[in-house]
Amino acid sequence: MADLTSNFLGIKSPNPFWLASAPPTDKEYNVRRAFEAGWGGVVWKTLGAEGPPIVNVNGPRYGAIHGADRRLLGLNNIELITDRPLEVNLEEMTRVKKDYPDRALIASVMVPCEEDEWKRIIPRIAETGCDGFELNFGCPHGMAERGMGSAVGQVPEYIEMVTRWCKEATDLPVIVKLTPNITSILNPAQAAKDGGADAVSLINTINSITNVDLDLMAPEPTIDGKGTHGGYCGPAVKPIALNMVAEIARNPGTHGLPISGIGGVTTWRDAAEFMALGAGNVQVCTAAMTYGFKVVQEMISGLSQWMDEKGYTSIDEVVGRAVPNVTDWQYLNLNHVTKARIDQEACIKCGRCYAACEDTSHQAISMSDDRVFDVKDDECVACNLCVNVCPVEGCITMETIAPGAVDERTGKVVEKEYANWTTHPNNPTATAAE
Amino acid sequence: MPQTNRENGVSPGRIAPADVQANFSDLHPEYDDHEALVAADRCYFCHDAPCMTACPTSIDIPLFIRQIATGTPEAAAKTILDQNILGGMCARVCPTETLCEEVCVREVAEGKPVEIGRLQRYATDTLMAAGKHPFTRADATGKKVAVVGAGPAGLACAHRLAMLGHDVVVFEARVKGGGLNEFGIAAYKTTNDFAQKELDWLLSIGGIEIRYEQALGQSVTLDGLQDDFDAVFLGMGLSAVNALRLEGEDKDNVSPAVDFIADLRQADDLTTLPVGRRVVVIGGGMTAIDAGVQAKLLGAEDVTIVYRRGQEAMAASKFEQDLARQKGVRLICNATPVGIEGNGSLRAVTFAYTETRDGKLVTLDETFTLPADQLFKAIGQKLGDMPDALALDGGKIAVDAAQKTNLAHVWAGGDCASGGDDLTVTAVAEGRDAAMDIHATLTGAS
Ligand SMILES: Cc1cc2nc3c(=O)[nH]c(=O)nc-3n(C[C@H](O)[C@H](O)[C@H](O)COP(=O)(O)OP(=O)(O)OC[C@H]3O[C@@H](n4cnc5c(N)ncnc54)[C@H](O)[C@@H]3O)c2cc1C
Ligand SMILES: Cc1cc2nc3c(=O)[nH]c(=O)nc-3n(C[C@H](O)[C@H](O)[C@H](O)COP(=O)(O)O)c2cc1C
Ligand code: SF4
Ligand code: SF4
Ligand code: SF4
Question: Which residues, if any, are the signal sequence (chain A) (predicted)?
Answer without folding.
Answer: none
